[in-house]
Amino acid sequence: MSGRIVAVFSLGLALALGGCSSVPDEPAAKMMNASNGTSAPHGLIIHGGAGSGSRANISAEREASMRASMSEALSAGYRVLDEGGTSLDAVAAAILILEDAPVFNAGHGAVFNAVGSHELDASIMDGATLNAGAAAGVSTVRNPILLARAVMDHSPHVMLSGDGAEEFAREQKLEAVTPDYFDTEHRRKQLEQRLERDRRASDKPSTGSKSKVSSDYFGTVGVVALDREGNLAAGTSTGGMTAKRYGRIGDSPVVGAGTYANNASCGVSSTGHGEFFIRHVVAYNICARMQYRGDSLETAAGDVIMKELVEVGASGGVVAMDAQGNIAWPFNSSSMVRAHQSRDQAPRILIFKNE
Ligand code: ASP
After folding, report:
1. What is the pLDDT of residues 102-126, one digit of tens each?
2. I need a labelling partner for 295 at 20 to 30 A (CA). Which of 156, 175, 183, 338 fits?
3. Do residues 70 and 337 make contact, with C-beta atoms less than 8 angstroms apart?
C-alpha cells in the first residue's frame, strides 16, 4: 500500500473516530457550517464504471490498480473539499486522476472504437448555476474533463465536438497528445475479442435481444461532489463503448443523461449502456423525481436504475448525492467500481455486489 493510500485511510479513520457515522441531514448542521466555516457537510462519490466484471474475470492485479486509483482520486477530490474548495474543482481533480490511470475507460486506457481509434467524451455541471460544459468525440486532448470545464467556463456553449472541440482545446492551451497516448494492450485485446464475437454472432440468426451491446466491463468514470457552501457538481468522462461505430456519441457528454447537478435536487453521474441512458434521460430523470415528486434520493435513483432500466434490458448504474450529502449508488450490472468519502464517512471503495 503506497504512502498516499495509507494517508487516505488514516484520514478516514480519524474522521470516523471523530464520532459521526452517518451523514447528518438536519438544516441545523448546515447553519452551523455557515457560522464556523469548518464543519459543513462535504464529500464526494465516485464511480469507475459499471459492467459484467466478477471476481472470476478481473485479475487481482487489475483489481488492485483500480482500488489504488480510486483511493487516489477520492483523496484528491476530498482534499479540495476539505480545504474549502468548490465541488466543481473537486470533481475535476478526482476525474483527472482517473483519466490518467490506464485501468479506467477514460483518458489513457480508453476503449477503442470499431476502426481502432479513440473518441473521448466528457461533461461537467455546476448544481448552483446549472452551467454545464461538454466535449464529445475528441482524440488528442489528454484530459477531456478539463476541456468540458473550459467549454463551460470560457465559451458561450454547452457542448463542442470533434475537430472544433480540439481546436478550442488548443486555444485554451490544454495539453495535447497523439491519439496513441490513449492505447493500452488490455483495451486492444478487448477490441479484438469483441470484433471476433461480433463476427461469430453475425453468422447466427438474431436472438431479438433488446440490448445489442453486451455489458462487458465498461470502466467509465464519474464524480459527484458537495462542497462546504452546499453546492453540488457532477462530471463524467469516458472512451465510450468498445467497438462503437466511428462518430458514435454516448450518454456521458450529454447533460441530463450522463451528468446532471442541481442544488435543488441532486447530482448524478451515469455509467452503462449509453443509448438507453440517453433515451431515459437518466441523470435528469433522477433529479426530477426528487424535485417534482418529492422522492428521496434513494427511491429516485433506485427506481430509475433497478426498475425503469431493467424493464428495457439496459445495464448500468449511477452515483448520486443530494444537497444534504445523502448518497445512492444503485447498479443493475454485476459490478460497479464505486467509492465514497465525506466529512462523516471514512473512505470506502467497492467493486462487486454484496461487498
Ligand atoms: N455510458 C458510456 C457510454 O455509453 C459507457 C460506460 O458507462 O462505460 O459511452
Report:
1. 999 999 999 999 999 999 999 999 9
2. 338
3. yes
